[in-house]
Every structure is written in structure tokens, then in C-alpha cells.
Amino acid sequence: MAFKYHCLVLALCIITEALGQTCPVTTSWSQISGRLKHVSVGVSGVWGVNSNDNIYYRGDSYGEEESNTCAAWVQTEGALKQLDVGKNVVWGVNGGDNIYYREGISATNPTGADWVQVSGALKHVSVSQNGHVWGVNGHDQVYHRIGASNCNQGGDSWSEIGGRLKQISVGNSGVWGVNSGDNIYYRVGTYGDLPSDPDGTSWQLVSGALKYISSADMVYGVNVHDWIYYRVGVTPDTPTGSRWEQIGGRAKQVESLSCLVWVVNTNDMIYKKKTD
User: Fold this and answer.
1) What is the mean pLDDT of the chain?
2) Which residue in 37, 103, 135, 217 has the most C-beta neighbors within 10 A?
3) Contact 187, 176 (CB under 8 A)
4) 3-class DSSP state for residue 110?
5) Percent with pLDDT over 70 in the chain
6) What is the biggest distance separating any 2 CA atoms in the chain, rounded to whole angstroms?
7) What is the top-level taxon of the source organism (predicted)?
8) 161-190 pLDDT, tens per residue?
9) Burial, 219: exposed, middle or buried (Cβ in 10 Å; 0-12, 13-18, 19+)?
10) Domains of the chain (ranges, CATH numbers)
């Protein structure tokens, strides 16, 4: 994939610190150069894969947000169809559903050192900022990586969790997923991405219908029409929130961290925005 790099100057928004999860108002979308079929953002920066499964890191994005310099997409070795970004680690799966994580990521070496293969087969994998890992396989079976953390990036073994999901996400808002019918589920007992990394106790059905979901400080998702939503009212006391609120734009996939949101649309065009 050929990228034409140019510097995008973003309008600065006034961020008002408030209690709890509050990012209700969104700024306008800013288009980012390049084409990706999947994008992810975490403390390790912004990463993505294109239609050829080439892997890219957004230069100067380590620490969640890219700098004001003219950052470029940097291709890294390997080939993945989907990836997810954590703190000093990136997990991903390739076209054969083989599972890998990127070791050696740091502020001084943001693209890391090597891809390490992990046993098993998954079509989609998710890692939290605490290094906790969940995934789903080609039969929509759900798995939790036991022992995975920022101190033990690869974890120890896979534990199958009951239920069927086509896509899953683990983050500060807990473990969320969607099934083949676009039904939405939250894993009870996982809110807060606890250090104990619990399996949770059951799947709780949440109102609405989404084809893709992202759990971080907020929960975002997109539906079959590519409309974008976030979940209002997600707190420790009400971990499933109260309702879905639509925001402007269209996307086939969405990821967020804090109040930063990245999406790709059906044409693999990349956009981002901040909320304030």
C-alpha cells in the first residue's frame, strides 16, 4: 500500500475534566492519510492493517496520541488481518487464524522487536491496557488468555468461556462482544479491567444491535448501516449503561481510548476525532 504523507493540523479543543466517564460532545472528524481495513489505538500508539494484511504503526503515536509533527505510517514486518493495541504490546491474528503478539515495544522502540506466535487459533483477538487478552475463533467460541498481563505478555494458556461471539473487546469498561445476529453482550464481573483478570460470571444481553464493538474508557460500536454509537451511563454501578447515543459519521470499525476515537469506513479511509 502506498501512503502519501501529509501533515494534518487538528483544531484544539478545550478538555474539561469531569467526574466519571463523560465524553458526550464530539469534535469534527479529521481524515488521516492512507488506507486501512482495521485500526486500533492504545498506549502503544495507533496501529493498523490494510487490505493486503500489511501492518502499519503511526509514527510518533506512542503514548496514545500522535504528535503535532508530520507523522508517517511506518510499515512493520509480518502480515495480520486484525490486531489490537495494549500497553507495550500488540496482539493480532493472520489469515490462517494464527495468533501473535509483538514484544519489545517501548517509548524508545515503538515498533517493537519481534512477533511471537502463541498456541491456538483465533479469528479476532483483543488486549486491554493491562495486558488482558480475550478472543474468538472461527466457530465463534470465546477464549480468555489465562495469566496474560503487562508483566507476562504472552500469558500461559487459553480457557474457553461459554457463549458464542463473532467479535470481542476487553478494556476498562469490561469485556463486551457481539454475536452473529449483532446482539450485544457484556461479561458480568469484568468492569474495570481488574488486575485479577476475572473470567466473569455470565453474559448479559444489552439492548441494541451492533456488528462491531470497542471497550475502553467508553464503549463504542457500529451497526449494520455503519452508524456510530457510544454507550451512555457506563459506570461501576451500572456497567451496562443506560442507552446508545449516535454520533455523526459512518464507519465499518471503531476503536477508542480515553476520549480519542479512530474509525475506518467501507472504503478503508481513516478518520479520527477527540471528544470533549
Assistant:
1) 90
2) 135
3) yes
4) coil
5) 88
6) 48
7) Eukaryota
8) 999 999 999 999 999 999 999 999 999 999
9) buried
10) 30-274 (2.130.10.30)
User: Which residue matches cell numbers 476515537?
Assistant: 261
* Residue 159: pLDDT over 70: yes
Q: Which residues contact 108 (CB under 8 A, 6 or more apart)?
A: none
CA distance 45 to 221: 20
Backbone torsions φ then ψ of 171, nearest 5 degrees = -165, -165
What does the alpha-carbon distance between residue 214 and residue 220 come to, in Å, rounded to a whole number? 5
Gap between the Cα atoms of 137 and 246, Å rounded: 30
Q: 3-class DSSP state for residue 166? A: coil
Segments in 37-193 forming alpha helices (H): none
Question: What is the Cα–Cα distance from 89 to 274, expressed in whole angstroms?
Answer: 23
262: β partners: 255, 272
Global confidence as pTM: 0.89
Grid coordinates 504490546 are at which residue?
A: 89
Q: Is 67 a residue whose pLDDT tops 70?
A: no
